[in-house]
Specification:
Length: 93
Amino acid sequence: MTGLPICDELRGSVNNPDWEPQFILRCRREIAKDVRLAREINALCARVTAIVDERESFVTKLDMLAPKKEFELRAREKTSSSRSCKETWTTEG
């Protein structure tokens, strides 16, 4: 392992001829932990994305209802104001 100076440093610090299999085992365990963490993060991202999509859909539906409700309120206001005008006209006349 002369091409990898960090491995030479590790072997020198461990002072054990069986350092390489232990190092490989340790790396594989760390890789497995990283993969597990990445899967958990991906699952959380998927859940958050689903929640955000659901809320955006809800807001879109509310936005679609808002103009309709506003139109209905204006129609009611016009109806009530025309009634009050009629009542005023009939009581005065």
